[in-house]
Structure to design on (415 residues):
């Protein structure tokens, strides 16, 4: 037998609420053309968190913000407790669904839950995207105790600002965070847009995530010699950008050697950046991901070795730094089995798949059981103003979450 709709209200009412709340969030950091920019530890991100807290309070929750900026809405006291949620920050010129859909869906699920034996909390994590500081999941990592003050202090944005300094400007103090993601969390559930095409291609409504890719973020500094572009013979050049171009293509080739590896050079800085001057200095950033930890380490090592070979052959100096390294995570089977049973009971088409993108769930899973639920996004487009997901799919995902929480509550209580 299937569970009743959320709060015994129609699916249309839930979808309408989802649509309205996502549209409201999109005005915070909203841009022309439909894009949204709410970078980590900015006023825009904090305003989105305040809006979330306002909605949760209206639903009867009690809210607090930890020093890292994670906002927690307590719907039902008790330990252990269920935790549901996602994040509210975005990349530069991003979409309105990445992260936000999971927070809005979590509110739908939590407000619809009838009496449970365990506590219920909804979280909006801070600083999940690595777009500003080069390292993802800062908020959840601080809450889990897997990021310390030293690691936090090594991070900088493009203007040289540290996360601690940026957070202080919006009234936060992440270095004072006391880890709270621990054994009190009975299970964490995160709904997210897929950010891929597997659900669409398989005509599936729901994705059940079995593993989340890890990532290695590398920074390279290549130093050659800035010379006149007309007066310097080709054989006498130390062109840092030419070397960087070789490295960009090498990163692509290394990733293609392994079935599950992906790697991207998404940011490059060139100096002096003049059309009549040979580039003497280049900074570039590599984002390498894999669901296989051995392949991830091997590919990262190959990128580093190749960079050394390229710069040595060209007579350049190279500096390199590992900005962050997060291992792949295999999510526990039992919460996924509960979601699976609910999809079967509802005759919902589903697909088990891994996530190539990182998520807060991967961090939480290092401290407590965690499960992820994907809903489709149109053409798999994400991190773009063209990002699009159906409010009906989000509301359906929230209903599945609600049902899974009821089932999980009963199962744990009976043990």
């Amino acid at each position: 037998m299937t569970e009743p709709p959320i709060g015994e209200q129609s699916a249309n009412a839930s979808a309408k609420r989802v649509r309205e709340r996502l549209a409201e969030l999109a005005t915070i950091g909203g841009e022309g053309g439909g894009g949204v920019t709410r970078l980590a530890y900015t006023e825009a991100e904090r305003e989105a968190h305040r809006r979330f807290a306002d909605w949760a309070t209206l639903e009867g929750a009690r809210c607090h913000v930890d020093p890292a900026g994670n906002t927690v809405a307590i719907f039902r006291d008790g330990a252990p407790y269920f935790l549901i949620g996602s994040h509210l920050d975005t990349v530069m010129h991003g979409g309105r669904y990445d992260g936000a859909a999971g927070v809005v869906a979590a509110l739908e699920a939590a407000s619809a839950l009838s009496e449970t034996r365990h506590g219920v909390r909804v979280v909006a994590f801070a600083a999940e995207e690595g777009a500003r500081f080069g390292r993802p999941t800062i908020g959840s990592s601080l809450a889990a105790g897997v990021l310390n003050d030293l690691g936090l202090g090594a991070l900088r944005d493009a203007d040289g600002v540290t996360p601690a300094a940026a957070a202080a400007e919006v009234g936060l103090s992440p270095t004072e965070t006391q880890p709270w993601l621990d054994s009190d969390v009975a299970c964490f559930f995160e709904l997210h847009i897929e950010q891929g095409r597997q659900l669409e291609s398989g005509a599936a409504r729901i994705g059940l995530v079995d593993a989340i890719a890890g990532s290695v973020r590398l920074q390279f500094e290549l130093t050659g010699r800035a010379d006149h572009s007309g007066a310097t013979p080709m054989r006498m050049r130390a062109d840092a950008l030419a070397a960087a171009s070789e490295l960009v293509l090498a990163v692509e080739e290394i990733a293609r050697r392994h079935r599950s590896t992906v790697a991207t050079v998404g940011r490059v800085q060139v100096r002096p950046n003049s059309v009549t001057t040979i580039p003497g200095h280049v900074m570039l950033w590599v984002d390498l991901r894999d669901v296989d930890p051995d392949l991830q380490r091997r590919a990262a090592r190959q990128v580093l070795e190749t960079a050394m070979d390229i710069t040595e052959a060209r007579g350049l100096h190279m500096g390199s730094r590992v900005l962050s390294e997060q291992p792949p995570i295999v999510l526990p089977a039992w919460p996924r089995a509960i979601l699976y049973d609910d999809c079967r009971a509802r005759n919902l088409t589903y697909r088990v798949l891994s996530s190539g993108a990182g998520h807060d769930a991967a961090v939480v899973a290092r401290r407590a059981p965690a499960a992820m639920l994907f809903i489709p996004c149109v053409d798999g487009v994400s991190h773009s103003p063209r990002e699009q997901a159906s409010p009906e799919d989000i509301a359906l995902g929230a209903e599945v979450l609600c049902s899974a929480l009821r089932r999980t509550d009963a199962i744990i209580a009976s043990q």
